[in-house]
């Protein structure tokens, strides 16, 4: 075979013909329901089959030379045998070659071609013993075109029948019959063994090709599932970001709007202060929306340290900030978690503890950890009671993403404390 013929294509060709059925499509589950593969983009098999044409021609010419050059039988018998050999050429060109190079050889047509080739081969094979050299060209075609069982039957006929007919026609000496019989049996065994071995190798190659196709399909499915999981994780991230920034900003605007409405009649300066705070909150929300779309850092952390960002956040919620320990730059992940956790805790404090409650933020820098607490002295709640909403669950999820923990301590009438503990890389001395 040509070196440029892919192994998978050779396996498809040889195995489809040898087993007498269409090649199963990779990834299918039923032999009866599988559809044959479509046409190939380039006729690689047909181009490489020219080597088989050359092989057939060489064997045919060598056989003709042996037939015409032998001393027995008479010359007119040898010429007649050579003339019968000529019939194999148009039979191969007109019927055999198109069949063997077709994408899915028809079993009946393949069997008809091999039977016809045997019929054309047997008369010269019986007349002149040297004609049996032609078996080297016919045997491979049997394994290409037929199922293994039919191929073995055809190979047996091709190897044994000419010897039997030759012996019955010419009644040669026992010595000649013995050696010709041994030669026929050896070639039969060799042909059957090599043909069966090659077909099993081809079937194994086909199974491996199907396995590779299944693995490739599994890889694509895994890629699809990974993409779906990534999209789900991204939606989850956006949900968290929107809840911790825009949604909380809009909640603050609603609360400030209610306060302004109540203060317009009796406390105009306080209403103006709340209106200014509403404008600041709206600007902050706009900055957060732009940062969210751009995928950058939160607006409060843009160009500022974590304590400065917390102080700006606390100023919008009338809260205090206390920082202890040596302040140092941190990776973006822990800083974002701390800022979003404080945003969530402050919003919950103002929403549930009331505007009169005292709220404070404490930040503690340690060598290997950062601890942030948001406490209020409001009405508190029962942390074990079922609660809806996304805030506390999202707060715990954020902390867990960077290897930290989030704890909520509260009791009815005893205020609430939200503590986030995050591990940090050990600082260099």
Strand and helix map with partners:
Elements: H1 7-19, H2 44-48, H3 50-69, H4 75-86, H5 88-101, H6 107-127, H7 135-145, H8 148-170, H9 174-263, H10 268-294, H11 306-316, E1 320-324, H12 332-353, E2 359-365, E3 369-376, H13 391-401, E4 405-410, E5 416-423
Parallel strand pairs: 1-2
Antiparallel strand pairs: 2-3, 3-5, 4-5
Helix pairs in contact: 1-7, 1-9, 3-4, 4-6, 5-6, 6-7, 6-8, 7-8, 8-9, 9-10, 9-12, 11-12, 12-13
Please provide a written account of the structure.
With 429 residues, the chain is an alpha+beta fold. It is 65% helix and 8% strand. The chain is built from 13 helices and five strands. The protein has helices at 7-19, 44-48, 50-69, 75-86, 88-101, 107-127, 135-145, 148-170, 174-263, 268-294, 306-316, 332-353, 391-401, and strands at residues 320-324, 359-365, 369-376, 405-410, 416-423. A five-stranded mixed sheet has the order 1-2-3-5-4.
